[in-house]
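Shift notes (night). Ran OstA-like protein while the centrifuge was going.
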Amino acid sequence: MKSTKILFSIVFTLFSLTVFSQQTPQQPKPQAGQVELQGADVLEGGTFNGQRITKLIGNVIFKQKDTFLYADSVYQYRDRDQYLEAFGNVRINQADSVTMTGNRATYDGTKRTARITGDVVMQDPRMTLTTPSLVYDFGTKTASYTEGGTIVDPENRLESRLGTYDTKTKMFTFQQDVKVFSKEYNITAQNMKYNTESKIVYFQGPTFIKGEQGDLYAEEGTYNTITKVSNFGRNAYILTKEYRLGGDKLFYDQAKGYGYAEKNVTLRSLKDDVTIRGQIGRYWRDRGEAKVYGSPVMETILDKDTLYMSADTLYSREAKGARKASMLFAYPNVKIFKKDLQGKADSVSYNRTDSVMYMNVKPVLWNDNSQLVSDTIRIHLRNKTIDKMYMFSNAFISSEDTLKNYNQVKGRDMVAYFKEGDIRKVDVQGNGESLYFALEGDSTLTGMNKSISSNMILRFEENKLQTISFLVQPDASFIPPHELKEGDRRLEGFNWLAELRPTKKDVFAPRTPSKPKVQPKKAPVKKPAGRKKTARGKK
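Came back to this:
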């Protein structure tokens, strides 16, 4: 009887242990690298959606390697104990360097990934990311979002539709509707990278930077948000109130206001619609100065046509402080082309404020069949049309007729008046001389008029000399064709310079900048050797 009671007690105990083991989950001993339960207030077993789970409630903590997961409650699936679903006040830490919080999360310990949803906030020592949902890979230490995100650091606020963040390299990659905001500038782009450590922005596609000192555009390159230094490529440009400077490569220091462009450079003055193209450009914002070289060509509208001007260097200077005029300088070896006007000179200066152009050092202008030469030429423009031209010192106008004769007028100074781009009248002021060949029917020479008078008035029709009037009684003579000698056909100083007349091709031709002349070094003067002294000290 006593042995029967003992056997019944043993069987009952074993049965009770079996039932209890089926109702209360047993936590297997975790292996190295597996998800490990660190603590919970309540541990229950049950079935959820047909799967056996362990439900942990209250102050739940899990650990895997250097990662900790905290939540109000967690479902741990019995058939795949490395997979967790966390609910309420979810927080995930990795190596005390990255913290992520949200309302809900799934954690896959096998793949070592987590997906957090609901008011997600991710932080590391350099930035804070907020987004509706986030996927984090603990192996590669990268986070990604697809529902829009906002990143804030001490200097900038960044937004985008899609994004990834590599916590090892501190590099964000943004896509779609990218925006960057700071106190001094705003950036918009479609694709962009940003390093939260170096604070450098990397562009990958059309990007606009709007700032207080001007705007920038590029399709590739970098921008340092701390130093405000840009290195751009592909169709890049700087846009200020005065200029638009662009090129295939563009460097701009926003703090210093200095820009440098290379390859297919374009500098456009916005005030007077003057464009300069070349291969190298420099810009100084505070000085209001810009320089283009490397076969530069200027373009502007004159007389309802495009005027082109080239030189080794084109230099623009805005009115700043004591400077009252905006100036454009071209030097040396200047060439000018317009359909009805061509020219050359060593240098040209253009006062854009007063619309006055100076041609210096052996200037020559050609207008249809006429050639104008003097020591200095000053051109006055009105409404982008030539209004008046002053020719100072050794002024000389010559024109070729249908028989290859050269009508010539010279004087100390001249003033030419234009109407609708054509010469209509020229006043000769001092030391006037003229040669004029009389033709019959543009095919027969009837003689040559030669006149000397201090002051003259020349009148033109369709850019051809029609009449000469003398304000002082002239010393005039008419020479018939059979009496003309070769020496009679030229005034002193005449020089027909048709071979120097630029074409449009000449203006755009690549040029090698002239090198400064190097003065030859003078050979050192050798002093004559003295005679040797004799034994008595005499030479």
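The CA atoms of residues 215 and 239 lie 5 Å apart. The helical segments are 2-23, 504-508.
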